[in-house]
Amino acid sequence: MIGILKGMATTMKHALDGNTFTVKYPEVAPEVSPRFRGVHKFSQERCIWCRQCEDVCPNDTIQIVMDEQRNGEEYNLHVGQCIYCRLCEEVCPVDAIILTQNFEFTADTKDEFAYNKEQLKNVPWYKGSDPLEARNPDRSAWVGEGAGEVDYQ
After folding, report:
1. pTM higher than 0.70, yes or no?
2. What sign has the CA pseudo-torsion 70, 73, 78, 84?
3. 83 located within any domain
4. CATH code, 87
5. Residue 70 sits in which domain range?
6. 25: in domain
7. Tens place of pLDDT for every residue, the chain, 153 residues?
8. 3-state secondary structure of 111
9. Could you give the count of Cα atoms lying within 13 Å of 78 in the half-sphere of its Cβ?
């Protein structure tokens, strides 16, 4: 009983101090942690089609279809079943796929969460922030430059 009263006292103390923790979304954009994992962005020009992201994905969210010459034809990602573990981003040697801070994506049906490479390329940045610039400084020491321009900006 004393534990319940202590918990209620703490709750009332924080409820009556005047500080608010909510924002009036969507009028005011909430602050997102720099380490937040949001919807993916994909660069076909940088991708070397090594299929490491497909192999490392724990729940088969990423599907890559290739032709006979090992050229990538399709890059599909089911955002609805992604657990945002960031393994696909970490294993990519050329930063062809990155997770943005964008959390604003909706759909009416489950099938609309299956994004192809063009839809992933056109995902907007959250507040204009580029996750490639916000990375740890030591990441550039082991990530290759890739072949091609960064076309997803």
Report:
1. no
2. positive
3. yes
4. 3.30.70.3270
5. 36-141
6. no
7. 889 999 999 888 888 887 777 788 888 888 888 788 888 888 888 888 888 999 999 999 999 888 777 676 788 899 889 999 999 989 998 888 888 888 888 889 988 888 888 888 888 777 666 656 655 544 454 455 555 555 554
8. helix
9. 12
